[in-house]
Design a protein that fits this description.
single chain, about 350 residues, mainly beta, Immunoglobulin-like, 3 domains, five-stranded antiparallel β-sheet, disordered N terminus
């Protein structure tokens, strides 16, 4: 069995909301509907739609036979591929976190979840001396099926299981299995995503304007010029940089911008239009180049990654293009038209 990392703390008084620069969300897995007391362990699994971290886990209460149980055993795993149904199947996995026979309370863990991966959280309450009770696990089930919002994405939750008591230790690799969509085992968990401020510098005419996403306002701006306003007016062409700090003292990465003094009329671009904006997938981009010029069209996300580019050599006249961002995460993007005379920016909102 592969073990990437195991970080375990029993923190009965720890406030997960105190994690700086992170958005923390608590997922309470339904209300108790069924008991399953047996030396076998149940839980849940899902396919992640985006990246986040699992930062806390706790076995749910509810099983009446385990009302006096004081401990819990929980593992967070990543399946190599989509797990197959049935206890006789072999589903290779990697253990991301393991807490065996620890006090029943919210337990801090660090388990990174990547978009597209298959992840399981399996566990339940158990007695402090499981050998005296044959390793009984006091599993608690919900009724019916479940979808959860994980990092803003609607995610189908499946039941996961193992035919062994987790209180006796981590099972052999591949023994966890899919157990269907219904009546999944109740294991509560907390997830977090990075909420450090993200920056984009936009040139609007003769000004540089900062757009900030994430973090907690109000923001503090610090430009390479020493200015502390959201918008500055550079006095010379060249490279400028910006840092932003939010009210939680979380600091953005440094963002750079090469300023070239110009305006839209110097560039000879007219009738610049993007529609619909906001859009769920398709953006129609149109403009008119009044003179023959070399143009570069780019769409950039908030961390500076180019997701679309097109070069127009010696172009003049009407330009119309349908651009699809359907496969990209929802959020804010920027469309840039670059010429030898300057840059025009427009904000895109993908809903």
């Amino acid at each position: 069995m592969i073990r990437l990392f195991l970080i375990l703390f029993f923190l009965p008084f720890f406030n997960f909301a105190q994690l700086p620069c992170m958005l923390v969300d608590t997922l309470e897995i339904g209300s108790h509907a069924y008991d399953y007391t047996y030396p076998r362990t149940r839980g849940l699994w899902f396919q992640a739609q985006s990246a986040f971290s699992i930062v806390g886990v706790k076995a749910a209460d509810g099983n009446h036979q385990g009302v006096n149980a004081t401990h819990q055993s929980i593992e967070v795993i990543k399946f190599d591929t989509m797990p197959q149904t049935g206890s006789s199947t072999f589903n290779p996995h990697t253990v991301l976190f393991s807490a065996i026979n620890v006090p029943h309370a919210w337990t801090l863990c660090i388990a990174q979840v990547d978009s597209g991966g298959y992840y399981g959280i399996i566990g339940a309450k158990n007695d402090s001396a499981p050998a005296t009770t044959g390793g009984m696990m006091y599993n608690s089930y919900i009724s019916g099926t479940l979808k959860l919002l994980l990092n803003g994405d609607s995610t189908v939750i499946h039941r996961a299981g193992i035919q062994l008591s987790l209180a006796f230790g981590s099972p052999q690799n591949g023994y966890y299995f899919d157990d269907g969509l219904h009546t999944l085992g109740r294991v509560h968990f907390m997830i977090s995503a990075d909420n450090t401020p993200q920056l984009q510098i936009n040139q609007i005419g003769q000004n540089l304007d900062a757009s900030v996403f994430g973090g907690l306002s109000p923001y503090t701006f610090y430009w390479s010029t020493g200015e502390t306003t959201q918008t500055i007016t550079p006095q010379t062409n060249g490279n400028y940089w910006l840092l932003v700090t939010d009210s939680d003292s979380c600091i953005s990465d440094t963002v750079f911008y090469n300023f070239l003094s110009s305006n839209i009329y110097d560039i000879q671009i007219n009738s610049f239009n993007i529609y619909p904006n906001p859009s769920r997938d398709i953006f129609n981009v149109s403009f008119v180049s009044d003179e023959v010029q070399n143009l570069s069209i780019s769409i950039i996300n908030v961390v500076g990654e180019v997701v679309y580019t097109a070069d127009l050599d010696q172009f003049v006249g009407q330009f119309t293009k349908e651009v699809s961002l359907a496969t990209y995460p929802k959020g804010v993007y920027f469309l840039e038209i670059t010429t030898d005379k300057g840059v025009i920016n427009k904000k895109l909102i993908l809903q």
